[in-house]
Amino acid sequence: MAATVKCLVWDLDDTLWQGTLLEDGEVHLPEEVRKVVIELDSRGILQSVASRNDHEHAWARLEAFGLAEYFVLPEIGWGAKSESVKRIADRLNFALTTIAFVDDRPAERAEVAFHLPEVRCYPAEQVLALTDLAEFTPATSTVDSRRRRQMYQAGFRREAEREAAPGTDEEFLRSLDLRMRIGRATGEELSRVEELTLRTSQMNATGVHYPDAVLRELITDPRHEVLVVTLTDRFGPHGAVGVLLLERHPGLWHLKLLATSCRVVAYGAGATLLNWLADTAARSGVHLVADFRATERNRMMEIAYRFAGFEGLDEAPCPCADVLAPAPEDGGLQRLHLAPGPRVVSTVIDVAAPDLNTPEGGPATP
Amino acid sequence: MSTPDTHTLEKELLEFLEGRTGTAWDADTDLFDAGGLSSLFAMQVVVHLEKTYAIAVRGADLRLDNFRTVRRMAELVARLQAPAGGQHG
């Protein structure tokens, strides 16, 4: 099955609207096309523009149509459209295989297809049929997908402010008013996590994949905690950005899964989660053991573990780990151990989390 | 005997830190306690050191203490750069 399109890049003249802005002066936006734009937006598919026009003139038209807000990173100018599409993909950090391009002119589609063969190209006649295509129909719809465009737009404002900010990263991060919420997972939240897994390269600190169905079963298991992490700042929500799977043993909490979105690595989300867990474990009088398998992508997480004080059980053995079943002998899985003490969780992120010593669903009844 | 490189390493690292933080540092300043830099920044420093000096900081070497001061970082880099099979004149 073809991968879901993550961003659709529109031509304007005779594709989004009818008419040629520079020649006709006036152009017409069919109501059905507006509906397509709004529908794709609500499905969490981003939309952009690659158009040969004067930027201010064309953008003013989009604003007059009430559509400007639906388009991110518009490329309106006189360069090659393949270059515009490439820039859009790069700035979104999307693979070209997830980009689609719609244009009424065969020559433009051919130019894009020649330079960017991975990009899927559609003729203007297909505009009204796009919403019926499988590749424009994501499997899940969550609160994060419905507001994805706003989240990206908030991200661009955040990034612009970061580049303009004087002082250190730390000072900038403090100015963001970052708020992390760690909560026991519900089915809806796991859908957000699954979506995150499918969409972004995660920093999977375990290197072990837990299928969605397995996590769903563990929600109700009293020995396990499935925790979902969301992050917000003054620019808006980052959405669901991480998941933890923890199994309780006497005297030991076993961290079996810790994954965070690569988008929030720059905020120190992984390190903050580890510090929160260490502090919570210290207050509960238990040690921590975390599964870790190095992958190409989770190097930062390995550093985060080590900087949080974790050491390899092979380097520094601890009897607390005797309750654990031996690590699978498929190579590469390390167990990192920490005898934690209370600590400052973060100097830049405000963290709210449930009391892990209170059973799920409120205090236990005798 | 100290590696002749350590001094050069310290100088390079101090320049890198000044460029990134806009502040001048001493080789002995505790960057995190006294300096107020975050462990997040320390993670970026690890990645920078590995790239710049073609080293791999592994396992127990990754402890935060090894990155506390420029001097410690320079010592770590010098040690990891040294050829594994012993040194020659």
Automatic annotation (TrEMBL), chain A:
* Signal peptide bounds: none
Supply the Gene3D superfamilies for this chain: HAD superfamily/HAD-like (3.40.50.1000)
**SUPFAM superfamilies, per database record:** Acyl-CoA N-acyltransferases (Nat) (SSF55729), HAD-like (SSF56784)
Q: Which residues cross the membrane?
A: none
The record, for InterPro entries, names:
Acyl_CoA_acyltransferase (IPR016181), FkbH_domain (IPR010037), HAD-like_sf (IPR036412), HAD_sf (IPR023214), HAD_SF_ppase_IIIC (IPR010033)
- Which superkingdom is the protein from? Bacteria
Q: What is the protein name given in its UniProt record?
A: FkbH
- What taxonomic ancestry is recorded? Bacteria, Bacillati, Actinomycetota, Actinomycetes, Kitasatosporales
UniProtKB/TrEMBL annotation, chain B:
Where does the Carrier domain start and stop, copy by copy? 4-81
Q: What is this protein called?
A: Methoxymalonate biosynthesis protein
Instruction: Provide an example Pfam family for this protein.
Output: PP-binding
The record's listing under InterPro entries reads: ACP-like_sf, PP-bd_ACP
Coiled-coil region(s) at which residues?
none
